[in-house]
């Protein structure tokens, strides 16, 4: 069994800024490399930022998977999956796009830009212990920091397990007071977490399964 002090990180984490809107030829080339189902889905998105984020994410996922001889598709619940033993995850937020791959079990990733945090939002998303830690922050900036740390870890875990927000996020209990987040209970030893800040106010957490 791996030591909690030295968890193996996921095989690969790529984080890129969305960048300015792509010129039509570059956008067409990006789109042409994606499966037709993804092209149709992207065409239904209203905002160019959302289209570009998602297309960049799928382009990166497919490139990383292809380097390992695998392909990527989407399950009926929307989760990207690859040929075993590879697993993949994708997130976009705050002008950043990130993809994670892992060959030792499941993986999930979440990135969020700065966002206002209200007590009502925290109560809808956090477990009792998480809420105590959140409310214990010295000021509003501290509460926002703690919320995003908890939230990205929670979403990364829910994406790794594939339920997404189909599971009540309050049923996931995390301790984010140490350097890296940790799940409470029996699941704690099974899942590794690593948090980082690609830019000021931007929070990213990747969660991977240690021993499936
Ligand atoms: C997936 C989900 C967590 C996305 O969170 P978000 O912060 O809005 O967006 P993110 O950018 O972090 O993640 C979006 C990516 O997650 C991935 N994703 C979608 N559903 C997923 C799932 N069930 N599990 C893991 N990943 C999922 C997709 O790749 C998506 O990007 P894409 O649309 O460009 O392909 C959230 O929208 C969700 O849970 N949706 C499913 C809800 C559901 O299943 N409800 C069931 C009825 S109760």
UniProtKB/TrEMBL annotation:
Q: Tell me yes or no: is Transferase among this UniProt entry's keywords.
A: yes
Q: Which Pfam families is this protein grouped with?
A: ACPS (PF01648)
- Indicate what this protein is called per its UniProt record: 4'-phosphopantetheinyl transferase
Q: What top-level branch of life does the organism fall under?
A: Bacteria
The protein's UniProt keywords, in alphabetical order, are:
Transferase
Q: Which residues form the 4'-phosphopantetheinyl transferase domain?
A: 106-207
Q: Which organism is it from?
A: Kineococcus xinjiangensis
GO MF entries:
holo-[acyl-carrier-protein] synthase activity; magnesium ion binding
Give the family from UniProt: Belongs to the P-Pant transferase superfamily. Gsp/Sfp/HetI/AcpT family.
SUPFAM superfamilies, per the entry: 4'-phosphopantetheinyl transferase
Q: Which Gene3D superfamilies match?
A: 4'-phosphopantetheinyl transferase domain
GO process terms (BP): lysine biosynthetic process via aminoadipic acid
Cellular component (GO) terms are: cytosol
